[in-house]
Amino acid sequence: MQIAPYFTPYNGGQERYIYHLSRHLIRMGNEVDIITSNYPPNKETEEIDGINVRRYYCVARPLRNPLSPGFLLLGKRFREYDIVHTHNEHSSAAMVAAFFKDRYHAPLILTCHGQLRFGDYLSDTIEKWYSTSLGRLIFGKSDRIVALSDTDKQYISSFGIHEKKISVIPNAIDPEQLGHPSIDGAACEAVREKYSLAGKRIVLFVGQVIRRKGIEYLIKAIPRVLQHVRRSDVIFVLTGIGDYLFDARRDAKTMEIEENILFTGLISMEDLIALYKISDIFVLPSLSEGLPTCILEAMFFGLPVVGTDIPGVRDHFKDHILLVPPRDDGALADAVIRLLEDEELARRLSGDGRKLVMSKYVWNAVTENYIAMYKGLVRG
């Protein structure tokens, strides 16, 4: 069983991680049930690609953490499973799994999806208090902890957790899904026309439009970029929704860059793949990340990437992307300008990035690592 704060149709990197891991576990002969919150509202029970999903009513989302009282009724169900796998030590889902740990016999695995920074003082202070109290408790209750990077492993160890209890297993992509033959040249041109992108060089952002993703610094960087290129040649395309979207639209209007920025809102996977294929540069200005799926996807499609110099990005990609300090819109703009002007650099990063992803970050290999861990814990 996997217990998670969110699952599809909520579409973030963590949710896609859980979906792909579950789907590949099933392909390799395992059964998977997912327990999650019913946010956004959807069917209480359904089967998605062989995954049995049960959603519980969400009463509130403090700091975007869904609270589902129905999770507290799960104590007896935990005993039905060989493995209980929860995600994100900051979530109420992980807290419930840890709370019931002494009442069931299945091993508890926790996957940590990176160190969390919200980008404002109050939220970050609350997060720090949580990590040193409840977060530490959840770490201690877990039989095995999965970190996405060596830096995150060191961070978890700082809470007094023995390193032997922590495994580093990275995020991954599914080449079969991303390389689907239906997203051909005609489909790409249809998306280009749909979003009025003809004749534009496209700088793409994929993710939630929230403060933690550094959206305000990306928007501040755009006027500087436009000073170095013809305004009519470049457009910044931001996919996704989030609680910073209203502010982002307002800031774009204030800076008079509305014609050079497109907020697509939620889009289909088919449109997303087409956007990856027709874009020129990918940018992720986040303040904190685990191991971002969107960078792996961008590299798979051969996009040169600009990312922030933070643990979840630096640990895996430092030699394959342009790194800039977080919260530095000037450096962010300069990196985008550099890739727009230096075709040789963009071409080198494009080729190196795709080779890296295909050699280390595919779901078949990652799932096999998880299965080996599961078997070791069950035998133990």
UniProtKB/TrEMBL annotation:
GO MF term list: glycosyltransferase activity
Database matches in Pfam families: Glyco_transf_4, Glycos_transf_1
Domain spans labelled Glycosyl transferase family: 193-355
Gene3D superfamilies: Glycogen Phosphorylase B
Domain spans labelled Glycosyltransferase subfamily 4-like N-terminal: 12-177
InterPro entries, per database record: Glyco_trans_1, Glyco_trans_4-like_N, Glycosyltransferase_grp1
Keywords, in A-Z order: Transferase
UniProt protein name: Glycosyl transferase, group 1 family protein
Organism: hydrocarbon metagenome
